[in-house]
Amino acid sequence: MLRIGVVGAGARSSLADYVGPGGGRIVAVADNSAAGRERAARAFPEAQVVDDHRRLPALDLDGALVLTPDHTHATVTLDLLRAGIPVYLEKPMATTVADCDAILATARATRTRLAVGHNMRHMPVVRLMKDLIDTGTIGEVKTVWCRHFIGHGGDFYFKDWHAERAKTTGLLLQKGSHDIDVIHWLSGASSVEVVAMGDLMVYGGIADRQDNSDRLMGRLASYDNWPPLTQTGLNPVIDVEDVSIMSMRLGNGVLANYSQCHFAPDYWRNYTVIGTEGRLENFGDSDGGVVRLWNSRSEYNGAGDRVIPIPTGEGTHGGADVAIVEEFLGFLLGKRALATSPVAARDSVAAGVAATTSLRSGSAPQVVPAVAPDVRAYFDAGQP
Q1: Which domain of life is it from (predicted)?
Q2: Which class for 253: exposed (0-12), middle (13-18), buried (19 or more C-beta within 10 A)?
Q3: Which of 169, 347, 191 is nearest to 241 (CA)?
């Protein structure tokens, strides 16, 4: 069985639970906090628990899952890659384009395998829409819109480090990188130009703040935390936007839009994809939801011409988490290809960074920097 290490025993460490079913074994966990090491010892009693990820190279690992806060991704991943340890890196890849490019360059130079955790490419709703597009159901894609209603935003993103620019760049990158990547995937190209606007409209006005660093993300969440202005215990520092609107021009000419709101009452994503022969739109993004298809001319037709139920997945994120861990383990063995190239993961960060720059500079249009052609070629070839 593959010997796998874990860096970070925080909110996302539950991902490591799927290593066993996927054919691996957690043999080591690194966390620089005492509370994290205690959680690791309880969750993985047979694993060696250490206080520094730099101790992992001595433990004969076949790979490692990097599940630490975003601003630490680059440092941890670069250390592991330079030590020859293949890495599964939780999304977003990093909080700056420079860090993303350094990770790609190091993986290429050391010939050490790298995967990035864009698990949404494995979510049943996204897979369904991608399959419908690829089979020509709506013709050639021309425009994509995504509205992201983040009903638990105040609980999940404004009570810990996610609320700080220094640790995320912004939520248009941190939270939006998932949807930016999905938009790129459904459209068949990455963003080359973006423009955005956004603001801190609600949570910046709440004075009740406290240090929640001793608690995991989501442990303070409750449906009773409503309406948003009654929230308490927010992070001491809040300098990211709680509403963001981003427009994109992709390399193949597709025009796209992504909007997120962190004080919506409900929590789901709504994608609309319009092609030359029809339109797709999802209603709900998990079990019980549907994708509706319109491919005939009409006036208002709320039901659509065809309704396709979203397949039921097992496990978290509709089965996407177990699927992406299995994919990583298969990739280490040379038996699986990655659904998300590390270059695509980098491109989602680059678009998110550029959009954040735009919204903080009077909505000035921004050109998204492209990755070096030789780097793209290496990863397009599957990291030979």
Answers
A1: Bacteria
A2: exposed
A3: 169
Copy the structure tokens of residue 270.
Answer: 């709504």
Structural domains of the chain sorted by starting position, each given as residue range(s) with its CATH number in brackets: 121-321 (3.30.360.10)
Q: Find how far residue 70's CA is from the centre of its chain.
A: 11
**Residue 57: cis peptide before it, omega within 30 degrees of 0:** no
How far apart are the C-alpha atoms of 146 and 165, rounded to whole Å?
Answer: 23
Q: List pLDDT tens digits, range 110-121.
A: 999 999 999 999
Q: Is the CB of residue 4 less than 8 Å from the CB of residue 27?
A: yes
Give tens-digit pLDDT for 325-339: 999 999 999 999 999
What whole-number distance in Å separates Cα of residue 290 and Cα of residue 303?
11
| pLDDT value of position 142 | 98
Dihedral sign, Cα of residue 239, residue 240, residue 244, residue 250 = positive
Q: How many helices (H) and strands (E) does the chain have?
A: 11, 15
CB–CB of 26/19 below 8 Å?
yes
Q: For 154-177, write each residue's pLDDT tens digit.
A: 999 999 999 999 999 999 999 999
Rg (CA), the chain: 21
Count the Cβ atoms, other than its own, within 10 Å of residue 1.
12
Please give the structure tokens belonging to residue 210: 């406290």
Q: What is the pTM of this model?
A: 0.96
Say if strands 366-367 and 191-199 run parallel, antiparallel, or are unpaired. Answer: antiparallel
At 12 the pLDDT is 85
The closest of 133, 79, 103, 63 to 332, measured between CA atoms, is 63
3-class SS of residue 50: strand
Which of helix, strand or coil describes residue 309? strand
Query: Which of these, 284, 340, 275, 338, lies nearest to 312 by C-alpha position?
Result: 284
What pLDDT shows up at residue 320?
Answer: 93
